[in-house]
Amino acid sequence: MSANESPIFTEHLPGASHWSMVIPRGRTVRFRDVEGGANVSVLFYNPNNLLERYNAPDTLKCQHTFKLTQGHCLYSDMGRIFCSIVRDDTGWIDTVCGVTNKAKVAEKWGAKDYQNERNLWKQNGYDALLVEIAKYGLGKRDLAANLNLFSKVTTDAEGNLGYVPKHSVAGSCIDLRFEMDTLLVMTTCPHPLNPAQDYPHQAVDVDVLASDPVTEDDLCLNSHPENRRGFANNNRYFTEPDMILPSQT
Known about the structure:
Structural class: alpha+beta
Order of helices and strands: EEEEEHEEHHHEEEEEEHH
Number of helices: 6
């Protein structure tokens, strides 16, 4: 995929918003931090079987990592790969902190509703995701652990989590190459550990582009042995010949 390729589709997501769309297999979604300091919380579901969704524990343990970045794959709870991270200008995607809720936002930044504040209201990530998945007949029990794109969280010697301010700068991009049809759900509400005094309203641009075919030397395919098995599971799911097979060694 060329960085200069014209997008098939483009959307601008203001801060404190939510959105979703079905991404076909063979497309790449590029997220672009418009102003710096953005956060995009994302979830993934199989639109043809909504019981299949993103599985954070399997994604992390099979790739032996606490963070995600370029070269990693995002797994479903069926052992298939929703998408591969083919570009990450930030070098670190938070996998463990979840999203804010109404009480936490009110405690940290005060309460403002849409009826009175319009686009300057203080939405929370939990309700934003819940509203979005409700469009597909899903509810509270269907909310899984999410990713926070553009956000970095580290730990100290005692295991305490710490948010890294200004981790993402204006213009930073994260590209997800979709290996199967996927319902992508997202919100631009602030990260739950963001220490900003004022409620952040950082916007993100989203482009959908055509993907190049996966080749034998693909970084995501080869970064961990389990990824080859994940790609093979995808090929079997689509009843295609196993053009990419797990290593026999």
